[in-house]
Write a structure and sequence with these properties.
It is a multi-pass membrane protein. This is DoxX-like family protein. It is found in: Membrane. It comes from Amycolatopsis australiensis. With 127 residues, this protein is an all-alpha fold. The chain has one domain (2-120). It is 76% helix and 0% strand. It contains five helices and no strands. It is globular.
Length: 127
Amino acid sequence: MNTALWIAAGLLAAVALTGGVSKTFVPRQKLAATPGGAWTGERGDGFVRTLGVLELLAAAGLVLPAALGIVPVLVPVTAACWVLLMIGAMRTHLRHGEAKFAALNLTYLAVAVFLAWGRFGPASFTA
């Protein structure tokens, strides 16, 4: 169980890192031209960059607290926050008719639910 939870955390961290870097450092106009990025054309630069920074923080929060042994309860808390982020992402992609991206977000949401459940419950770091 512990190994599966570490794999889930690593996968979500990689996804968050990728999304965070692109939203933080790639110009919004370029993002808007990519598949699944049309929504960025409707938002301001500040909003998109803020979302990117939050994703970078999520990437760190999914792995570093447990790896460093400093407040490891932040791992399932971050996973629970990721669930909320994915709900918003799914709604956004569905509004733009991008069902395949919404399905991908649903997959990430399921992994985050598994991680939050596992780290709050049977394989918590305090057990």
